[in-house]
Amino acid sequence: MTSPVAPHTPRVALLGLGDIGAGWAALAAAHGWTTALFDTDVHAADRATGLVARRARALAALGRADADTVERGLRRVKVARSLLQAVGDADWVIESVPEDLALKQRVLENVGQVARPGVIYTSSSSGLPMSEIAARYKDQAHCAVAHPLNPPELIPLVEVVPGKFTAQETLDTVRDWLRALGRIPIVLKREVPGNAVGRIAAAVWRECIDLVLTGVMDVDDIDRAVSLGPGLGWAAGGPHLTYHLGAGDGGVEAFLQQLLQSFEIWWGSLAQWTKLEPEQVHALTAQIEKAYGAKVDALREARDRRLAAILKALEAARKG
Fold first, then answer.
1. Which end of the chain has fewer CB within 10 Å, C or N?
2. Tens digit of pLDDT for each residue in 200-217?
3. 181 with 279, same domain?
4. pTM for the model
């Protein structure tokens, strides 16, 4: 699969080599980009090369990347032993450290001491606002959130969220780079806790958890209900288009006339809690482990094959 050519291919530095950071690195490598990896955890840094290589090559095996480009990109992946070595000549710094505000602030401040002026800095934060992450940073105009979904190298959507002082030029450049990586960026107009995708996922998952904990459905059945129900329809068109088409020629106006009252009744009976008690966490964990066991690697591979097949079908439909 080919991707559009960016007017300028950036040198990328990945900070934080957990699941998200490794996914970003695999994606950049799969496109042949020069990529530096850095993590303060020496063990994470040491195993990063093998992890990134495995995930990048998996993209080629799934038909999501060109095998020769992957190998060329992997030769351009370097593990840095210092922050300066990682970001000193970078054009784009992608931070994917744990979701801790103080930690993210500290990382950004440290980057500011060693990076070149004008470097673009994006955080993979799933919900922390860039205005807070960059509150003490001198160059907030070049900072934004670029939040991917997991796994970042497969799911194309990336939420781009500006801070209060993010320059429009920064947003334009980040979108161009993301598109060059085959991503589909969506830009939020303002910061909200959890961004957009996190809020949607949190709302749906809360109801799914409640249906499990109240004995309405088992874990595997609720997962099928979502993935083969609204999840399947929404993958093809999203919720608003799904409901707009749901009443035929009458569109969403007819749909709301017919079903709004039903939805209002359902909304009134949805889960309203905002916290899981320890015993509920234990019960939920036990039921998920009962449903799926310890076959994490096999489950992940099967999920990735399904994702690749769905993406291939959606791309073919758009081209048709």
1. C
2. 999 999 999 999 999 999
3. no
4. 0.91
